[in-house]
Amino acid sequence: MSLPKEVKKLVERFQENRDVYCSTAYNETQARHEFIDPLGHKKSVTQPQINTPDNQIDQLVYELYGLAHAETRIS
Question: DSSP per residue over 7-63, as a string?
Fold first, then answer.
């Protein structure tokens, strides 16, 4: 069975730029944009949906350690 044309092109691009794609500077968002989205798989979770649980977790941790609001800001 042969690979679909689009998948073959993505594999070739990865092989040609493997060092870049395997570096720590290349992140998940870039990988999704370059390799997953072209195949028609769009992310189903929006950034606000991700941020809400993250913010809730942050607040619980702050409360757990007794941190005031001013202490939680990053300079």
Answer: HHHHHHHHHHTHHHHTSTTS-HHHHIIIIIGGGT----S-HHHHHHHHHHHHHHHHH
pTM: 0.47
Give the domain ranges of the chain: 5-39, 45-75
* Amino acid at the residue 71: E
Phi-psi region for residue 37, left (φ > 0), alpha (ψ -120 to 50) or beta?
A: alpha
pLDDT in tens, the chain (75 residues): 576 788 888 888 999 999 998 888 998 889 988 888 888 765 565 666 566 777 777 777 777 778 776 666 665
Amino acid at 11: V
Inter-residue contact 38 to 11 (CB < 8 Å)? no
